[in-house]
Amino acid sequence: MKRKIAILGSTGSIGTQALDVISEHSDLYEAYVLTANNNVEKLIEQARHFEPEAVVIANEKHYNTVKEALEDLPIKVYAGAEALCEVVQDTNIDIVLASMVGFAGLQPTISAIKAKKAIALANKETLVVAGELIKRLANQYEVPILPVDSEHSAIFQCIEPGNRIEKILLTASGGPFRNFSDEELKNATKAQALSHPTWTMGAKITIDSATLMNKGFEVIEAKWLFDVKPEQIQVIVHPQSVIHSMVQFEDGAVKAQLGMPDMRLPIQYAFSYPKRLHSSFERIDFFKLKNMTFEEPDTKRFRCLDIAYKALNMGGNMPCVVNAANEIANHAFISDQITFERIAEIIEETMQRMSFCTDSSLETYLETDKEARKIASSMI
Ligand code: MN3
What's the predicted TM-score (pTM) here? Predict the structure, then answer.
């Protein structure tokens, strides 16, 4: 029997690559549900090609367009955020790939956990905002959370059941502005940020990668996925992005997972775990790999990494505050409303102005998110 996969965010970078993996292994997997936020054209194209059981367009105003375009096919069409939460509960679904962008990924993921679906998690904001809650629910419903983020997939491939992790060595490309002077950083543009040196990704995560907030979020993500303390996670800048991350054990041994930068590998591994499947992805040629370098992250110029550590150490609703403020600031930068430097400032100021709360309920996160967005928006 083919495993049926629901892809939340099928038109994004991870979603389309997940569909490549499904095409490559169509004897094993089937795209059962596809969803998009606004990208109607691509969703329709994907639906006509893969003929899933259902599609969801989150933005309700596009419902009629999608419905009409798929009229001749036996595909159920739904719209709205509620529908996302409902569709993942279909009893036939085996795996839910959470690859939506931002806070929007949280509630459908919770809904999928409660319906006992295996979660392939690409949406890091879910663990950033609500790590404690998600971990608790995953334990309660006995649901595996399989990391799709390349670093966390690497760590997942390195860990040994029963052997304690001494340290996680989380690698970072350093982002597109790594070598910028202070002056260049001041005038950094979104176009410069969007030309990421090693990974091709969506706009939001590319800007997060330029500020190092993406790496900060990955630190938080690693804490929840692998149950380690913040001080056990060390970020190492490795611009070649060949080592996807490493784990150091109690005896000092370090294991690394290496590969060419290609997200299809971690996506495929999350689907096939614990087995590995054949792939035709590019292999590493060690003789062409002239060097691998390692640097300390520059947290003076890229303050978002420290901000994330601070939020993680504070705990409670602070990571949720940081995520919300970051989504607002990130979007404002993409829309040319603020300079690059303002991103970190807006996040820090939002943290100062928000009230701290240790409760880890969904209601608290929803409220915190709303309030933090309001405060961050008022600074733009
Ligand atoms: Mn990553």
Answer: 0.95
